[in-house]
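TICKET: design request
STATUS: open
ATTACHED STRUCTURE:
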């Protein structure tokens, strides 16, 4: 049985996008719920507040907030380029939503002060980011293969750099087991470098290989006689069928001889 296709502008298409946006909104809101407020004693000084572990929770919240927001921006851009939704594209979006919803849980585990020396919370967070990134990439792949979006050169260039983020987080996994969770978190700072570098490379690639180059103006010497203007045509080469009535019938335009 063929999968039903919901074209852009239909109620079913709008419901799908609304559902996707709602998942991101709920996931990014749940992040703040996982932060445990410090007790009254911890508010006595900055040192006591730091010992409460709330600063680590706020840091994890901030990281995950912008991570989820960035995933939403990617999904927003991808879905803005598709012309319709079908079963396959809905399913791969739902898979991507699953890993987005897991992010608040992995964030809470990573920010737990009693697990500061354990590598597994950081590894779980990294694996979640990797899976979410790959799922976002699969959305574009499925949309292209199903003929629901244009396989443009710009989109292919962007997809080529989709694996930069998973690669950085994959690097942090062996670092977490070998050196501990803190050095693994420091490897994520590479994203501050890889992001601008990837953007610069994409811009240079676009400049070298434009999608729609401006066609060269035709030379006047190579112009076809059929494309020449009537005013520029030679009177001797004018066709009788294309001549004006006055030229074809001179007697009709002249005064009647008395």
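STATUS: resolved
RESOLUTION: sequence designed for all positions
ATTACHED SEQUENCE:
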């Amino acid at each position: 049985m063929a999968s039903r296709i919901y074209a852009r502008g239909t109620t079913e298409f709008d419901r799908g996008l609304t559902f996707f946006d709602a998942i991101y909104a709920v996931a990014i809101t749940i992040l703040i719920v996982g932060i445990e407020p410090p007790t009254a004693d911890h508010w006595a000084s900055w040192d006591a507040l730091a010992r409460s572990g709330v600063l680590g929770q706020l840091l994890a919240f901030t990281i995950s907030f912008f991570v989820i927001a960035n995933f939403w921006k990617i999904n927003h851009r991808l879905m803005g380029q598709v012309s319709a939704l079908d079963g396959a594209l809905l399913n791969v979006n739902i898979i991507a939503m699953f890993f987005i919803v897991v992010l608040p849980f992995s964030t809470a585990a990573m920010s737990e002060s009693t697990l500061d020396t354990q590598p597994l919370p950081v590894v779980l967070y990294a694996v979640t980011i990797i899976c979410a990134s790959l799922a976002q990439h699969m959305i574009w792949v499925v949309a292209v293969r199903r003929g629901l979006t244009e396989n443009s050169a710009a989109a292919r260039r962007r997809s080529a750099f989709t694996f930069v983020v998973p690669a950085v987080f994959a690097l942090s996994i062996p670092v977490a087991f070998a050196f501990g969770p803190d050095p693994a978190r420091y490897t994520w700072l590479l994203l501050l470098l890889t992001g601008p570098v990837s953007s610069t490379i994409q811009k240079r690639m676009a400049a070298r290989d434009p999608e729609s180059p401006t066609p060269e103006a035709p030379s006047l010497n190579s112009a076809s006689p059929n494309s020449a203007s009537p005013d520029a045509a030679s009177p001797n080469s004018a066709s009788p069928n294309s001549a004006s009535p006055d030229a074809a019938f001179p007697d009709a335009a002249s005064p009647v001889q008395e």
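CLOSING REMARK: The longest helix spans residues 54-80. Strands lie at 5-7, 84-86.
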